[in-house]
User: Fold this.
Amino acid sequence: MGLTMDEKLKPIVDALQQRFGAQASTFRGQTRLLLERENLVAATTALRDEFGFEMLTDLTAVDYWPQESPRFHAVYWFTSWQKGGLQISLRVPLDGEDASLPTLEGVYPNANWYERELWDMFGIHIEGHSDLRRILMPHDWVGHPLRKDYPLGYEEVQFSFNQEEIMVRKAHPQE
Amino acid sequence: MSDVTLTPVSMDEVKHLVSERAMQGETVLLNMGPQHPSTHGVLRLLLELDGETVVNCIPDIGFLHTGIEKNMEAKRYEQAEVMTDRLDYLNTMGNNLAYCMAVEKLVDLDVPPRAQAIRVVMVELQRIASHLVWLGTHALDLGAMTVFLYCFREREMILDIMEMISGQRMMTTYFRPGGLWRDVPVGFEEAVRQFLRIFPARIQQYEDLLTKNPIFIDRTRGIGVVSKEDALRWGLTGPPLRGSGVPYDIRKVRPYSGYEQYDFEVPTREEGDVYARYLVRIEEMRQSLRIIRQALDKMPYGPVRSNNRKFVPPPRSEIGHSMEALIHHFKLWTDGFPAPKESVFVSVESPRGELGVYLEGDGGNKPYRVHWRTPSFANLQTLPMLAKGHLVADLVGIIGSVDIVLGDVDR
Amino acid sequence: MGLEQKLGDMGIATMKLEEAVNWARTNAMWPMLFGLACCAIEMMAAQASHYDLSRFGMELMRASPRQSDLMIVAGRVTRKMAPVLRRLYDQMPDPKWVIAMGDCASTGGVFNNYAVVQGVDEVVPVDVYVAGCPPRPEALIHGIITLHEKVKGEKLTKWA
Assistant:
């Protein structure tokens, strides 16, 4: 693994750049393509059918609030078993006001849970998703925990000087 | 306490997941878990049953969602590592390895060859330990109590080795970015070699109990079949994928930590059923033994931590007489090290499949975003597909064969 | 305390009702098969060949709360799990005891965040806390013996 792009990825990256206007960047041998959300489904379909990336390995998002706009980046990782474990990443910038993505369920069925997780953790709405419910948090939870404006929500550590103050606030269940 | 009341899920919310017949009362909706002995933790399944047959199976996860990803963002790179152990608690060393490799890749840190070899030995031991827990509980679910007792007997040997090197039985945090916490103690090699001597015969014991056992075969063969195409489409990795005939193993396709030096095979089966996954895992234990033996034989001498003092604290002995070492030590333990505003994705082969870490830095000393691509999460997603049309009793075997760890699913 | 020590020539044993009941309770205390996270693996190890919890009359893990006296909360309790845990506790018949096994169940452990309940004692009353992350099986056994000591000291008046 060098610092440059994998030779086998070159034609794929070139094709995606031409057809979908993707911007490529490489860091420590890993290639990421920045893509508009309108082209996402077409690009992933091309990845699967033409270039042999049969697996959606990972799907997550990063929240750049408040320092950057657009606020979110959805990050996709695809793997090709046929091409010897080749991996490529797509990144889709999303505005905070209108955070929504088209679903990839039709292309990769396992996008289902990943997209539910995006909704649950980041509040990114998935258009056309078959089952958009919260997946990890309780169904009546308020807020999306992995957003940067959501507090970590920790409890103060008790020391002798503040112990009683905290104990008053704690719940004391009965049998 | 007001916030510990169960708010019921309304029927409307799951309406689109079950068949029409459930709405008319022809099929039964049954809740399985989160407190159920065979769901291996706190997995909840909503089953739609026609008699004993599973019509639909809707997993409900998140009962062990610990907020590890968010919590890691609030800690420095070295501090965050303790969180990784508690993700997949049967593969603690593997989680450490994935995280350390991600940090090393992000800041471009070298790892000495000895550290890499010890990492391989420990990760493979961990793989065996994890498979032992899987085998014990899987067999227990299918009604074979003895195997459980046998498996935990051998697992204790591995845990003793872990305790010997790190002081902890499970949550070791032994790998650190840039190498290891410290070198292995005297007696480590002897202990591992002792294990290597004993264990092949023990695998044979498990196989004697199960492989040709007619009850076990009846309960597993032809159950939960997944085809090669479906396995790839659904992003299965690990033994479930190899049990369907795809020899995809990250140790082979993208070797890390020196796996390219070792000679081992990737066992596969074509059948794609519960029994095939069982055979794949049994064979994997044998291959792990091969890797451990080679790694021990070839074990190089030398340092176990990188000399890059910007990221790795100096050894204790240097602090006494070198001012520079003291400064590095102080700086690293008070402030940590910065990582570039970039992102990497690193994956390793965990006992359950592809364990990936997406790590993003922001130029500071804390990770900006850590995401775990956990194999259990990806593999559990196929459960509805695997379970459809089988009996409830077989569902237990199918869950076992996917080998989920709920800490890994929910993170 | 063995009953046979109290057997006299007449075949009659005399002892306090309190003692007899507490003796019976400690020596056949059925824990609930209730694993949450990492500690559950150590709890399994405590059950299995090497540590053998059945020496304390506790080999019978019951999967149903209706049949168990002791809840070992083995692992971190999340906000999603807490109501379930409380319901399970409510379903257990009296008398019942709770062991908080491990740091997460006792205090929240390393997970001081939005998702984890900071100590299971916010949800159910806890009798014994076992420290460790995860506690060794010996530590769990020690916790169980501590609970046995506690039960042996229970008074008739408290039964109510």
